Amino acid sequence: MLSKERKISRRSFLQGSAFLTAGSLLSACQGMPAGLPAAATPATLAEAVDWIQAADVSKMSPATVRYWYYETPERTALGKRQVATFSKIHPNIKIDGRVAPPAVDNEMLVAYIKAGTNSHVHQSVCNEDTWYITRDLLHPLEDLPGFEEIWGRLNPNLNYTWKDGHIYAMSWYFSPMTMYYNKKLVVAAGLDPENPPTTYSQYLEWAKALTKEGQWFLNLSLGEEWWRWQFIVYPFYIAATGSNQLHSEDGKVAVFNNPEMLGVYELIDTLFANEYNIREVGGSNPFYSGKVAATLSGASLLSNIKRYAPPDFEMIAGPVPKPDDSTVEGFHTYGFTREFALLREQEKTGEEADRINRGAWEFMKFLLSPEEAAADFDAQGDFPAQADLTANPIYEEIFNDLGPVSRWVADYAKGAYIYDMNTHLESESMAILTQSYLATIFDKQTAVEAVQWAEAEVNKLLAAG
Asked: What is the CATH number of the domain that holds 381?
């Protein structure tokens, strides 16, 4: 992810890196003394096996692939088990697994890439992929052996093909942003738990009914990190517009200054202005404890409730609401999607680099198998990004364990979108949007002023390239 202070220009990153080129290979060959036996020339040796495209890697010389475990103790434990299992299948491909250092995406990853210690199989997000793509750090996946079989299993709505025609990442899991409500508090307030709000007016009625002394309706974050906007505002924007588009298809101008965006900013401002949304959160999770009656969260909440909430805790789920006069069909939301991308080996070159990159690809394929997708689902609760999520029996027992709410959320998730992918400056644009919505909450700007400011700033960003 981006650091709050951008100390390194994205354009200047790795400008001095040495990449193996055809010219350097030619120079090396021209320096060979005449008369060497044909079997001893580097060109002949290089022709032996193209490990990037080889059908069988069992006879490939040993390669070491780096892999970082992220996010939670559950995923760390699972990752260690996955490394051990994969090593038995491919003993010649060593996976050097470790817990990821904190805050190491995008610019914060620079030092690790330069030192040659970064994860080759990188857990990324689509709007952050662009940072790596523009620096030629990712290995395209579409021509690698076995790609089509895996690509065909994944949910097409959770993947993208970049503007240059390449596919640089494959979706791993996703988390549809959903409204969850404390059923006990809903019933106590005289509200119908079978009919959660679907429109802004209903939503505000519930907000008023579920707010009283010592209890708030919601806990939208006041965090200033650049990525907050996608989890706070974007779900409402997608619900209101039925689209995830923030920039024109050519990536040249912002397209989010519209009545729907203004309505979202006004709705969120109303939640804070009327003190329906708690401003300070400390100690235990306020949703689990009943301090707030509702929360906007991803699918991992389904398993976290079972782990951390009181035994008698019950919740219901509903869609992110849309305007009362909306003409958008159905209900849509933001589906935060974690993917795997192959960060190309930068330090080693030639055949050795090919072996590392191919080893990373084999491990990525293993992690995206239905069995490992189910294992991650079971460990964390986020939904596998597989097309047959609700039909494959391999996931049925996990859904049963999570309860009926999980199946409702999985059905709702069919209307989920990944982040806008129309510009290589997605993350920088999001940082501006985060500042704009915070400006309304802290009464520095009206909704109209905040959206207009964001539009102007994003257009400057896009024009500068």
From this structure: 3.40.190.10
